[in-house]
Every structure is written in structure tokens, then in C-alpha cells.
Design a protein that fits this description.
The protein is an all-alpha fold and 76 residues long. It contains five helices and no strands.
Amino acid sequence: MISNSLYSLDGILVFGLLFVCTCAYFKKVPRLKTWLLSEKKGVWGVFYKAAVIGTRLHAAVAIACVVMAFYVLFIK
């Protein structure tokens, strides 16, 4: 079931939203911020970039999370 939902468009959107929200939360926790978000380039830079997207576009990300939750719970 997980592999089937991972390859669908809505599964990828849910994963992306959860990843951005999680990284934005990590940016607020000091110990996690120094551990995960210290690198700004390379593979570890993806976490930093997702955290920046989550904090700068927090209103849009929150609205997208609510819309996706409504879609997953009631429409899908």
C-alpha cells in the first residue's frame, strides 16, 4: 500500500508537504537546527532548503496542508 501511494501524484504531494513541514519544525528546535540544517549545499542542503521554504511560505504551506488533509480524508 505504501509503495502504491508513493508513486501517485497525491502521495508525492503529501510526502513533499510533510517533508517541508518537518524541516520547518526542525529549524525551530535549536539542537536539531545545528545537527540537520547546518549544511546549505549538497545532499544535506535539501533539509535546509525545505526549512527555508517552510518558514518563508508558512501561510501557503499551512493552507496546502489543510487542503491535502481534506482531500485525503474525505475525497480519496
